[in-house]
Design goal:
With about 180 residues, the chain is mainly alpha-helical. The protein contains ten helices and no strands. Helix 6 (about 70-95) crosses helix 9 (about 130-145) and helix 6 (about 70-95) crosses helix 10. The longest helix is centred in the middle third of the chain and has 25 residues, at about 70-95. It starts with a helix and ends in a 14-residue tail after the last helix.
Length: about 180
Amino acid sequence: MIVAAALPLVVEYGERVTTRQIAEAAGIAEGTVFRVFADKDELVGACIEAALDPAPLEAALAAIPHDLEFEAWLVAAVRILQRRVVDIWQLSSGIGSRHRERLRRPMVDSDALTDGFTAHRGQITLEPAAAARLLRALTLSTAHPLIGAEPQCPDELVTLFLHGVAASTTTHEDPSC
């Protein structure tokens, strides 16, 4: 409960957030924060762990109905992935350098995203896990605030993902790939 109340405040204020603000948001006495956490750094660490927990992302992706048309399913997935990128970026930009190391971890495959591609297997040329990785990479690279001012429109991103940037459908096969 404390972490859930603190996380949006840590995103908004970074390390400048006070335990008083957190206690007020959680509806508890400030001393209760220190009965649960040794200090504010420990609470910020718990917020980072909660923000990076893949379970809510997986649940949101899994909740997208697989019977949607493929492009509609992709747009819904991109919206969720873009929100995740922006949320993590906002968190990371507000915390101090002593907490940044906690953010460094490899991106693991998304079972929910892979399952969605599996449900649309007849419409893709790659293995579902590879398609899921490519969609996540493209979404990350186009939603990251240091790369572009605003995330690309999900519909446009899906069109790019599915059809590329070529004007024609002629492709050049690279034998080294």
